[in-house]
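Fig. S4 source data, part A: sequence.
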Amino acid sequence: MRKVENNELRWYAQLAEVDFVFYDRFVQLCSERGVSPSRAAVEAGLSKSTVSKWKTTPDSKPTGAAIAKMTQYFNISISELMGEPEEKTPVLTEKDRRDIASDIENIMQQLDSSGDLMFDGNPMSDEARESIRSALHIGLELAKTKNKERFTPKKYRKE
């Protein structure tokens, strides 16, 4: 789960026109998780009175702190919490994941064999090597997803 940025929290906390009652969305998330709204509030670190306020005052909205706690509790993004439709992004297949892993191994082998993984003449630490591997993994996954999104003909897209 990614870390929620303060600017993002402020923006969502200041929403003026929400076309749904937030309490209804909260109840929906609770039922999907199989817990009561009051139990979810306590487990998320919110007070029961906060949830009661959402229920009795339909135009009330959660604060930035409440949004952060709920996104962590439900393990969802802020847009999902606020009921916004998700964008359809291409899904990576097992073959894509194997290709990415293979590419990473090839790149790391080339870097190891070239002797370029040095810092001030000292060999790179295992921790730094894993950081490079992680960065490559993230970058290749994003590139593969973006390319699928951009270059897959419309007739083959799953929407």
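Fig. S4 source data, part B ends here. The helical segments are 6-13, 22-33, 37-44, 48-56, 64-74, 78-81, 94-114, 126-151.
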